[in-house]
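== Polypeptide entry ==
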Amino acid sequence: MARFLKAPKLSMPHLPDWNSDEPEVFEEMTLQEHLEEFRDRIIKMIIAIVPAFIIGWIFHPRVLEDIREKSKAVGGLQTLSAVDPITISFQISLYIAIAITMPIIVYQFIAFLMPGMTRKEKKFLFSSLPFITILFVAGALFGYFIAAPRAMDFLSNWNQGILKWEITAQNAVTFFLRLVLGVGIGFQLPVIIFVLTKLGLVNVKQLRKWRKYAYLVLFVAAAIITPTPDPLNMSVVAIPLILLYEFGILISAFFGRTIIREPRPGERDPKDIVTVN
């Protein structure tokens, strides 16, 4: 237990020598060592989030005011609890911090998986980090400026002459920021498809064959991200996800033909496996 609770190593990230000719070495770790490594990665994520949280705290009043305007709360957002003003401020700041540190969070997850990767796989995954960042930012901006405002506009105008729209601050902030974060994560679809293709876990033929099922899953995901009964708002999220799925197939067809995954010690090469029909 004392070993498990020891302080994590907070050294700077060490990138391996991609062009080394030395034999591949795969680290064998016990369950306790895996748990310790996972704990260290989580702590490093938290340490990265702290300064980003301070930035979020500085800008959270502007974001809250923007949410109020897009929520059509003319007289201001309601608070039903005495602690709502402070908890909402913390909530917005935390979401901003997570958005800022998303590349670091993804890096820590990749680094956790590194002991079981070859040099080619490590190099490939690290080189995908800029694209992960760009797509997440693009998705978050799309959600913030297009998807979330349209959803709020639809909900505020539903049965307008019968129902009085007085949304609470907690509901507005949670709905708005979860949608933005969900769309940002959803925009990672091309990178996910490309990575799976390069690792040999799927191929372009399978992705095209699964297209109709993928569309159904993406529409379900869009319905979860935008929990409104309006199919138009759901389509605002679903259509970009479908286009991103097709874009993922396209880049995989052009750049994912060569599989970088190599057989581990004692594992058969996928090219040597013969499928009997």
The chain has a mean pLDDT of 80.
